[in-house]
Amino acid sequence: MGRIFFWGAAVLLLALATHLGAVLFSPAVSMTSAMERAFAVTPVNAMTVLDEEIVGNVLREANPDLVYAVCPYDLRHGALSIDAHIPEFYWSISLYTVQGDNIYTLNDEQAGVSNLRFRLELEKPTLDIEKVIGSEAEEEAAAAAEAAKSDDTVLLKTPTERGVVLLRAFLPDPAYRERVAQVLAASSCHPTHAHS
């Protein structure tokens, strides 16, 4: 009886450990794979609306009730400007690091506008305390100047040079696909210096 109880408890603990491992690590592995596929099939630093054929190649578990657009980004040569056009139905924007970590998400209800502009910059690590204080003051001044020029720009910082911007828009009916895709296609993602 004791032996059966021991093996039953061992199997139960193994099953629990396996389940927890899958729940905790599977989403990160899945998102990292999606990042790699996005970089492989779409241009870098450019917004691409994923058509019905390609969406399954990039996002394995894509929701058929959504239209997706992606912009794999690489900040090695500077900041990125993202101009987002928001359709009349549900919409969201998410930014992921290349490891699949979500660093920012916003939806249409939170935004409350029909167009948004983002500036995505690399978060620079600082070691010298004097440089930290000086750079913080410089960054605050630069942010204030940017806000004075354009109060609709949201400054975002990412800890990694590479990642993916993902737009999602609700598709209320398949007949609306072209209309929703056109709004997403009006969104853009490009190096800041290219259009400044």
Q: Would you summarize the structure shown here?
A:
The protein is of the alpha+beta class. It is built from five helices and nine strands; from the N terminus they run αβαββββαβαββαβ.
SSE blueprint and pairings:
Blueprint: H1 2-41, E1 48-50, H2 52-58, E2 66-74, E3 80-85, E4 91-97, E5 102-107, H3 108-111, E6 115-122, H4 129-149, E7 153-158, E8 162-170, H5 177-185, E9 188-191
Parallel strand pairs: 6-7
Antiparallel strand pairs: 1-2, 2-8, 3-6, 3-9, 4-5, 4-8
What integer value in Å does the Rg equal? 21 Å
- The whole-number mean of residue pLDDT values reads 77
The N- to C-terminal Cα distance equals 76 Å
Beta strand %: 25-35%
Q: Main sheet, how many strands, which sense, barrel?
A: 5 strands, antiparallel
So how many helices? 5
Task: Kindly state the percentage of residues in helix.
Answer: 40-55%
What is the number of strand segments?
Answer: 9
Q: Which structural category fits the helices and strands?
A: alpha+beta
Q: What is the N-to-C succession of helices and strands?
A: HEHEEEEHEHEEHE
